[in-house]
Amino acid sequence: MVALFILMLCAYLGSNVYIFIRGLQALQHFPPVVRWIFGGIFWISVFSMILVFALRNSKLSATAWAHLFFEYSTGWLVFTLYMTLFLLCFDGFRLFNHPFQHSFVVSLGLTLGVLSCGFYRYRHPVIRTLNIGIDKPMTGAKDTFRIVAISDLHLGMGTAKGQLQQYIRMIQAQQPDLILIGGDLIDNSIVPAQQRHMEQELSQLNAPSGIYMTPGNHEYISGIADCMQYIARTPVRFLRDTVVTLPNGIQLVGRDDRTNHARQSLAQLIVGTNPDYPLIVLDHQPSELSQTVDAGADLLFCGHTHRGQVWPMTWLTDRLFELSHGYEQRGSTHLYVSSGLALWGPPFRIGSRSEMVVFNLFSTKHRP
């Protein structure tokens, strides 16, 4: 892990040195003061992430300025990635004795264009709707049981109060019977959510069968005890290796995150459940899909992957995870891994999309 961090740090710094040198070359005919201003802004941007992590547990982290600074500093990571890729492509022409005259300016324009599209895709989530039939009975008058499932809101310096209000309106517009939150509701610190009283927005969530969430790795990063105490101030019920039975007979299993190596196995958790009634599993990380299928779960909902969030990280997550995003059916088990409603860090979706998932659940036993 340490070696990987050092490698990534070297790649980040090396890429920025490369961009900086190419930038100075592009500004060679400008007055020295312009190049000095460029250098100052550039290197402040490069090292701005240090200040972000220093601020994350302070009261300043809840301010609007902190939110903007967070988006800028984390966004610089993605700016560095795409600026480097475009510059390398144009510099490749030199190998064929066809140097590109304005490679820095064109690379800058292309990078800003890609980031603008990525920002739009992040701020305009899509709604994925799936109709799922289960060969088990559900009691109640309704033919279809509507579940709104979200994950990875990462409330904090990145996902601010106004954006959370937008998400709440999206969720409630679906008139859900049940709301599920697949972990990472909180980002790297609980402090911004507390200081900005985001529990006010969370308390607007409403569903007849309840609102349930399971912890993610970021709840542990933020302090699991503090997160549980904070969530207790809202209508959201925290499920941590817990099974609840809903009024219509659906059995909901909320698994602890695999960050806790002592968490119970799914086989242990479902002891005492009724196999004749639907079983839904809520687990933040999609790491034990086969065990979920073997346990006879009817629906599994996960998050965590963000589907890489930005290309080419999408390729990496597709190879790291058995199912990195989307829907799959194995036998009678329906699996869904969400790319997340918000995201972590850089405010861009490039090669992925922010999403909310709506499951229209119906019992085939009750249909003609």
Q: Any overview of this molecule?
A:
Helices cover 41% and strands 17% of the residues. The protein is an alpha/beta fold and 368 residues long.
Keywords:
17% strand, 6-stranded mixed β-sheet, 368 residues, elongated, alpha/beta
Strand and helix layout:
Layout (H helix, E strand, L loop, with lengths): L1 H25 L5 H15 L1 H8 L8 H28 L11 H21 L2 E9 L9 E7 L10 H13 L4 E4 L9 H5 L3 H4 L8 E3 L3 H6 L1 H8 L4 E3 L3 E4 L5 E4 L11 H4 L9 E4 L6 H6 L4 E4 L10 H8 L5 E5 L2 E5 L17 E9 L5
Parallel strand pairs: 1-12, 2-3, 3-4, 4-5, 7-8, 8-9, 9-11
Antiparallel strand pairs: 2-12, 6-7, 10-11
Helix pairs in contact: 1-2, 1-4, 3-4, 4-5
| Radius of gyration based on Cα positions | 23 Å
Approximately how much helix is present in the residues? 40-55%
Q: Determine the structural class based on helices, strands and strand pairing.
A: alpha/beta
Uncertain parts: none
Q: Count of DSSP helices?
A: 13
What's a concise summary of this model?
It is built from 13 helices and 12 strands. It is α/β, with parallel strands linked by helices and about 375 residues long. Strands 1-12-2-3-4-5 form a 6-stranded mixed β-sheet, with no helix packed on it.
